[in-house]
Amino acid sequence: MNKQSNTRDLVWNGSLSISVTTESSPLCYMTNIPRLSYIAFILDEVRKILCPNEKLDNCWLEFEGVPLKSHWPIGVLYDLYTATDPDAPRSPVLWKLVLHYDNFPASQLIPCNEPTTFRTLFFNALKESDYVRNKSASYILSLSNSATEELWTSIQKHDFEVYQRFIPRLRSAKYDQLPVRIYITPDTPVVQESVSCKETLGSMLHKTLPKLFPSQNIAVLAKAIVHGISIPLSTNMNLLNQELCYTDGFVHIVIHML
Amino acid sequence: MSTQEKNNISEETNEDLKTSATASILLKRLPEDTASILDSYKSRGNEKVTLRFMPIGRTPTLKTAVFTISGNQKFEVIIKFIKKQLSMRKDASLYLFINSCFSPAPDERIGNLFSSFKTNDCLLIQYCTNVAFG
């Protein structure tokens, strides 16, 4: 196996151990979930086990008082809200979440628990990222119905064999632009930028967040985390595009304060 | 178009920026100057941006097509605004597209969309009451 496909494989297989409890039941749901996956994919299964009589529409997961967005990659949620330092030695972690089935926090979460509503959100994110790369969503829009279905199933079932057939087109960069989302702290609005693949991670962060990254080469105040890995500032953005991109076509970067 | 002709869209407070106990403990330990840098990023993207609305198909035209709004507002504020302008029910379906292409998630910041997808310093938003673009 060459080095390239190995990185993609490792990223694809990165996972988190989570446990979900409710406030009213002694039951606990435990699973390993891919970092690339979404709460929207497991919420119904969790509901069926912990509170089968409740409606899926009302269900949501919480971590330490924060309602978790079902449509953000779960690895991003973990890196952002646990603020775990990937370089610090630690024992394996179980991420403890709480399931709620009432008082849906509509001002904080988008209702997208049903696979069909989440599918619309997901494909729109994919079109948005395609638009940054190609100045149109031509690739996503040109997919046949059966190819779209195949891509969606590969995301839902986390099937790399099928998904990787789409990668060369999904990440092609005719215009050399790459969509990134930067999560500074949980209570700071997300920063989305279209950046050049020719930049390094350090030069991109220095341009976007100059005060937090006063140097292009040395992490002075903060470092950048992608898929739970701290990424050297010298890394080329094109490498992030090719190897560390999420399935929605964005490179999600969580900032960790030093 | 002069500033007088532009209308402001009424804004909402963002409630989705909650922090976890763990993250907040770590952030409280930061030196004061680092904390003030982080604070300054909280208001990043507050600048006003210009939006131009275009109806698709038989969807009615708005009286004014150009509006301004703070970049820190969520996209859902625009959805609510157009529904109100068209006297639609809150739960009626309305589809909005950026550059005739995609619908952003309701929680995306308008400032982010503006900086990535604007044309001639204006963010083009098409709207219609049925699905227009895939």
Automatic annotation (TrEMBL), chain A:
Residues 117-170 form the Autophagy protein ATG5 alpha-helical bundle region domain. Residues 178-255 form the Autophagy protein ATG5 UblB domain. Pfam families: ATG5_HBR, ATG5_UblA, ATG5_UblB. GO terms for biological process: aggrephagy; autophagosome assembly; cellular response to nitrogen starvation; mitophagy; piecemeal microautophagy of the nucleus; reticulophagy. It is a peripheral membrane protein. Keywords: Autophagy, Isopeptide bond, Membrane, Transport, Ubl conjugation. Signal peptide: none annotated. GO terms for cellular component: Atg12-Atg5-Atg16 complex; autophagosome; phagophore; phagophore assembly site membrane. It is found in: Preautophagosomal structure membrane. Residues 11-101 form the Autophagy protein ATG5 UblA domain. The keyword Phosphoprotein does not apply. PANTHER family: AUTOPHAGY PROTEIN 5. Involved in cytoplasm to vacuole transport (Cvt) and autophagic vesicle formation. Conjugated with ATG12. Belongs to the ATG5 family. This is Autophagy protein 5. It comes from Schizosaccharomyces japonicus (strain yFS275 / FY16936) (Fission yeast).
From TrEMBL, chain B:
GO terms for molecular function: protein tag activity. It is a peripheral membrane protein. CDD domains: Ubl_ATG12. It is found in: Preautophagosomal structure membrane. It comes from the Eukaryota. Pfam families: APG12 (PF04110). One of its GO terms (cellular component) is Atg12-Atg5-Atg16 complex. Keywords: Autophagy, Isopeptide bond, Membrane, Protein transport, Transport, Ubl conjugation pathway. InterPro entries: Atg12 (IPR007242), Ubiquitin-like_domsf (IPR029071). Gene3D superfamilies: Phosphatidylinositol 3-kinase Catalytic Subunit, Chain A, domain 1. One of its GO terms (biological process) is autophagosome maturation. Belongs to the ATG12 family. Forms a conjugate with ATG5. Ubiquitin-like protein involved in cytoplasm to vacuole transport (Cvt), autophagy vesicles formation, mitophagy, and nucleophagy. This is Ubiquitin-like protein ATG12. The gene is atg12.
